[in-house]
Design a protein that fits this description.
By secondary structure, this protein is an alpha/beta fold. It contains eight helices and 13 strands. The longest helix is centred in the N-terminal third of the chain and has 9 residues. It is globular, with a radius of gyration of 18 Å. The termini are close together. It binds D-malate, manganese (II) ion (MN) and zinc ion (ZN). Zinc ion binds next to α1. The site of manganese (II) ion has 4 residues, from loops.
């Protein structure tokens, strides 16, 4: 299995266009850029899937030679997109994939309903491409020898969704290479580390975790804006780091960094990072 972090930032990217917080100022000065959370995975190196499709998807695909089209005129290695939320940050990129001849989208019934009604992305996109939209109850078999398992980790609705029905708003995914046996857990929106999530990550080789905020009060401290990390559906790294210690054989890294998050180091993913390179 190959896993490529196409974008390592939360919504808005880092720097965010209208933010002059210390982290954004430094990033602007140093020419650093994190694009918005999207990951590419493949089991066989030929059939690739996106985990979410953020607003930066076009740039991210152009930067990734493995995702270049060919040999057919409109042939692409991209087979589909697996959505873990209905957030704009994770779905707007689908609109930029409208030139596709055909595209499969996997989502929970809850997310699909929101993307059909409150934000009618599905019918809109269906007018542009041959859209194969599928339910993702607990898992799906993908091309290239991958299996994706899913659990619901949160119930936070996107702001646009009002009181839209459903429970399966926020998912974690576990991708397993059925030939090589390796596995990868993707959980960049994780409100709480439940016993069920602990079982879900157990034995995984690599995990990309929610790195939105380092501490619970980070947003307010650095921007004065209201809201704690946990109330926004994001377990702070200061809380999840001790939990990762329960799984010493698993490599944990953080993605979906908010522009206020000053963390750096070995366990912080950057754009373009390829996981599994030392397995
Ligand atoms: C999130 O990651 O919590 C959302 O994408 C934030 C938002 O845009 O409301
Ligand atoms: Mn987000
Ligand atoms: Zn900022």
């Amino acid at each position: 299995m190959r896993v490529r972090v196409l974008g390592s930032a939360a919504g808005g990217g880092a720097p965010q266009w209208n933010c002059a917080c210390p982290v954004c100022r430094d990033a602007r000065r140093d020419g650093r850029d994190r694009t918005q959370d999207t990951v590419a995975v493949t089991g066989d190196g030929t059939a690739w899937y996106l985990l979410n499709a953020g607003p930066d998807i076009r740039t991210q695909i152009l930067r990734t030679p493995e995702l270049a089209p060919g040999p057919g005129l409109r042939e692409t290695p991209l087979r589909g997109v697996l959505l873990t939320t209905a957030e704009l940050d994770h779905t707007l990129g689908l609109l930029s994939l409208r030139e596709a001849v055909r595209i499969s989208v996997f989502a929970t019934a809850t997310v699909t309903h929101a993307l059909t009604t409150a934000f009618p992305l599905r019918p809109m996109l269906g007018a542009y491409t041959d859209l194969d939209w599928r339910d993702m109850p607990t898992g799906v078999v993908l091309d290239g020898g991958l299996v994706a398992q899913r659990i619901t980790v949160g119930t936070k609705r996107p702001r646009y969704a009002g009181d839209a029905p459903g429970d399966d708003w926020v998912s974690a995914l576990r991708l397993t290479d059925t030939r090589g046996g390796s596995s990868f857990v993707y959980a960049t929106c994780l409100p709480v580390w439940t016993p069920a999530f602990d079982v879900f990550v157990a034995g995984a080789d690599e995990v990309l975790l929610d790195g939105t905020f380092t501490t619970d009060d980070e947003l307010t401290r650095s921007t004065g804006r209201p809201g704690t990390a946990q109330r926004m559906g994001h377990l702070p790294m200061a809380v999840s780091r001790p939990m990762t210690a329960r799984h010493p054989a698993t490599r944990f890294r953080y993605g979906h960094l908010n522009n206020t998050n000053p963390s750096s180091g070995d366990d912080i993913a950057g754009d373009g990072l390829e996981l599994f390179t030392d397995h």
